[in-house]
Amino acid sequence: xxxxxxxxxxxxxxxxxxxxxxxxxxxxxxxxxxxxxxxxxxxxxxxxxxxxxxxxxxxxxxxxxxxxxxxxxxxxxxxxxxxxxxxxxxxxxxxxxxxxxxxxxxxxxxxxxxxxxxxxxxxxxxxxxxxxxxxxxxxxxxxxxxxxxxxxxxxxxxxxxxxxxxxxxxxxxxxxxxxxxxxxxxxxxxxxxxxxxxxxxxxxxxxxxxxxxxxxxxxxxxxxxxxxxxxxxxxxxxxxxxxxxxxxxxxxxxxxxxxxxxxxxxxxxxxxxxxxxxxxxxxxxxxxxxxxxxxxxxxxxxxxxxxxxxxxxxxxxxxxxxxxxxxxxxxxxx
Length: 334
Prior knowledge:
Helix content: 25-40%
Structural class: alpha/beta
Strand content: 15-25%
Largest sheet: 10 strands, mixed
Shape: globular
CATH architecture of the largest domain: Alpha-Beta Complex
Radius of gyration: 20 Å
Mean pLDDT: 94
CATH class of the largest domain: Alpha Beta
CATH topology of the largest domain: Spore Coat Polysaccharide Biosynthesis Protein SpsA, Chain A
Number of strands: 12
């Protein structure tokens, strides 16, 4: 990497009630071969003792309350791999659980306002390899790639990916099958945000911030689609790796696959997904996308779910809410 201009990178880790994985993630971020300028920990009003745990580990000096507006504490710490460098730890305690979307929105906003060149985004249950940032940044600068991500390796099965690319759907999930798809070390057109995703501030300048109203399940996909719609190329750097639990969620074939598949979410939060799906389809796939999704979900609720009229009506209500970008219906956020 050309060091004539030192690129400033800030990491954002969004966390909710996972203090020990957060600590492991934070340790990995601070061990990077390319040093970060700052780390923004966005704590979505955790109730599991996260601030007390961070204080015990020396990352913060005082426990902040989730009451009122988001609070921030900043502490400067030595950076272990670099004796002559320090890093700023920004602990931001949100006043409520704003989901991944709200957390990343807050982190991106603060990073952008700080003036850094790049923002490195991840959840608290991922672990970046020690050279991940160096590999992402090196390739991004070399190839002028403004939106990149690593290979997301399944924590439990390290020869498999946590998020398998759709263009390899019929191929076995293994590293050996995805590596040949790369061109000069990058699989262009495919990325799985926000799991160690590196974005340039130029992206934020051009397309704005994450849509925080989405809460969970769709905000990262919408941001990627928005970038691509604005002619920002995305790609996965195969020399950069990030450990993460395998994708959760269930997909169900509709009429033996003739109508495709639908994603099944837990009933208590499914409406959040339906609303975000409506927004994404309406903005990026048009009328044909609407027709396809409405038909296959209607079939799912009537056939696969045994004439579940209430579920179908909820789907229609929330899907339309998102498709019209009104977001009036309240999500269940607990």
